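Quick one, T. Sequence first:
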Amino acid sequence: MGRKKYTRIIPKGIREGYIEKPTDEEMDIIQMAADSIIPFDGGRNYLVKLLKGSNAKIMKRNNVQDNDYYGTLKYLKMKDIERRVDWMIVKGWLKLVQPWKQPIIRHTEKGWKKAKKLWAEKLVKQMEENLNAFLEGIKNKNHEIKHELLDKIQEDKITSLAAALMGWRKIGVRKVRKKINAIFRDWEQN
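Structure tokens:
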């Protein structure tokens, strides 16, 4: 007996065209909230519930109250959040893939570039406000996000983060240390 094949599930709102363009701030929130659920294969409905701040059993079971994006769009109705998420999917910022029964959210290439930039901005703020939390959390970040952050620091010439970079250099992997050294050399030359 072979494996059962699953047909691609197209969410109803997407197919019928009932989508709504989110504001720039809402786009950033949706992109980062999606990034936070990608590691554990969250789907479209899960993303909508997260953004609304739902008290559904699955949300309680996964302790999403600790998620930075839990309830960030609670001022919108569930349908409005759904339409905005659908817009992000239709316009190529997010995509649905279906490796098994339920479709799950993933970044598109364009969406991943945006998410990396958003992560870099968030991490720069964290470096300025709470260096210890930054140094503890940066170990678990995707290497592409780390390099995006270092590129942002170098391009924007954020010399106020020199002490933070020195702390990061002590715990970073070889490629990170190499990039940090290049940033310091670049700052010395200018």
